[in-house]
Amino acid sequence: MFHERVECESFVWRWLPRLCALPLLAMPALSLAQSYPAKPIRLVVGVPAGGTNDVVARLVAQKMSAQLAQQIIVDNRAGANGNIGAELVAKSPPDGYTLFMASIGVSSIHPSLYSKMPFDTLRDFAMISQLTSIPQIIVVHPSVPVKDVKQLIAYAKAKPGQLTFAGGTGSSAHLAGELFKSMARVDMLHVPYKGSAPALIDLLGGQVAIVFDQIVTSLPHVRSGKLRALAVTTLKRSSVAPEIHTVSESALPGYSITTWHGLIAPIATPRDIISRLSSETAKALESAEIKEKFLAQGAEPTPSTPEQFRAFIKSETDKWASVVKAAGLKPE
């Protein structure tokens, strides 16, 4: 009995200090979660100010700054179609104070278009949340004698290689057209432009026949009668123009392309910081203020968990790699 009591007391005194230390070991992580953010956060946008990417970034930054009681500063680092800004963030300290505005181009299309990428989105970044889902719209010049997608397909088949569609090489507009060609089994001619704005100008002037454009920029021209809308490219109709059919329901079941944005951070960013940013992003996107302002950009707020966003980017990357390969586009 005596020996058993001695052994018991020995066990208690041997392990008691270690058990007491466990809460202390958890304190650094707890303290980090409670103190973050302790200084301004930089949100890098890989395009110049003024475009949809920049507008979405500034709306979200303003709303989350108020929620976090710490300023989020938008830093435009344009160059190499967004790759320069993404590389900067990938190589930044993983402390939650440098984030990147991910998009369909730089995060999912570029890996199959560039032979040498300075980063790998899935390897070098921690996902925070998707922000938007923006439909594209197929618009034609009024001189093109078609009023819906079925007629467009028939017209393209009757004039192989003659029907032109405009867009920046490797852009979402270009790949939307290539996906359409593949699924509809038609031959249309891609006319490369340096951006969507000059492509739209030439469409309005009748120099090209078709543009796969973001809905917010083309819709005013559709409603004024200067362009004709055939369909939106998302699986569901857009809340901005619910009267316009989708490509999928019109003629090509499963056809889908969505322009999107999201927040990502360097890969080793602490999990509790990623979780905090993700929850704050969801809170911002659920606000009536953000929903109203996003709607003005043709965007649907699309919050997601980090895990959902990673799976989405993986699926997008695989999808566009297949389209690039089928279209015979050569990596630069």
Features:
332 residues, alpha/beta, D-Maltodextrin-Binding Protein, domain 2, 13 helices, disordered N terminus
Total of helices: 13
Overall number of domains: 2
Label the structural class: alpha/beta
Strand and helix order = HEHEHEHHEHEHEHEHEHEHHEH
CATH architecture of the largest domain: 3-Layer(aba) Sandwich
- Major sheet: 10 strands, mixed
Tell me the Rg in angstroms.
25 Å
Which CATH C-level class of the largest domain is it? Alpha Beta
Alpha carbon gap, first and last residue: 81 Å
List unreliable stretches of 5+ residues: 1-13
Name the CATH superfamily assignment of the largest domain. Answer: Bordetella uptake gene, domain 1
CATH topology of the largest domain: the name is: D-Maltodextrin-Binding Protein, domain 2
Taken from the alpha-carbon principal axes, the silhouette is globular
